[in-house]
């Protein structure tokens, strides 16, 4: 078993010249692998500072890729130093109170517009009849 690192220790290795990742509870120094990574170094650099296990598993790495991991493993992560995922709770917001004035105007227009159209039609009919 290798050395056990805290998350704070792993986070100090956060550059292209010194890049460490956490995957499935193990710590990997992937600095020498950055240029050879088939997905490009940006993929690995984007995973610095977090548990990259889900990202690693989502890609579906080959057994050859998994075998290569042993070469870059420098130890294990102290899981007590990784913050737990917190369930998202939306911020408290005041209850929305709708302005009734706009609703009243809409109802009034729903009544008056057809009435005006009817009045216009009667006026046109009256004027064109004579």
From TrEMBL:
Topology of this chain in the membrane: Single-pass membrane protein
InterPro entries (UniProt xref): Cyt_B5-like_heme/steroid-bd, Cyt_B5-like_heme/steroid_sf, Cyt_B5_heme-BS, Cytochrome_b5
PROSITE patterns: CYTOCHROME_B5_1, CYTOCHROME_B5_2
Keywords: Electron transport, Endoplasmic reticulum, Heme, Iron, Membrane, Metal-binding, Transmembrane, Transmembrane helix, Transport
Organism: Musa troglodytarum (fe'i banana)
The family this protein is said to belong to: Belongs to the cytochrome b5 family.
GO molecular function, one term: heme binding
PANTHER family to which the protein is assigned, alphabetical: CYTOCHROME B5, CYTOCHROME B5 ISOFORM B
Pfam family, one: Cyt-b5
Keyword Zinc: no
A Gene Ontology term for the protein's cellular component: endoplasmic reticulum membrane
Protein name (database record): Cytochrome
Subcellular localization: Endoplasmic reticulum membrane
Domain Cytochrome b5 heme-binding positions: 2-78
Highest taxon above the source species: Eukaryota
Membrane-spanning parts: 104-124
Keyword Ribonucleoprotein annotated: no
């Amino acid at each position: 078993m290798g050395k056990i690192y805290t998350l704070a220790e792993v986070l100090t290795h956060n550059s292209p010249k010194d890049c460490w990742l956490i995957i499935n509870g193990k710590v990997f120094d992937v600095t020498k692998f950055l240029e050879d990574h088939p997905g490009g170094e940006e993929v690995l650099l984007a995973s610095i500072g977090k548990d990259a296990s889900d990202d690693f598993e989502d890609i579906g790495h080959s057994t050859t890729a998994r075998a290569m991991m042993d070469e870059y493993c420098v130890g294990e992560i102290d899981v007590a130093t990784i913050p737990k995922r917190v369930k998202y709770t939306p911020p408290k917001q005041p209850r929305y109170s709708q302005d009734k004035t706009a609703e009243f105007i809409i109802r009034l227009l729903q009544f008056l517009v057809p009435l005006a159209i009817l009045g216009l039609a009667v006026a046109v009919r009256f004027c064109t009849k004579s």
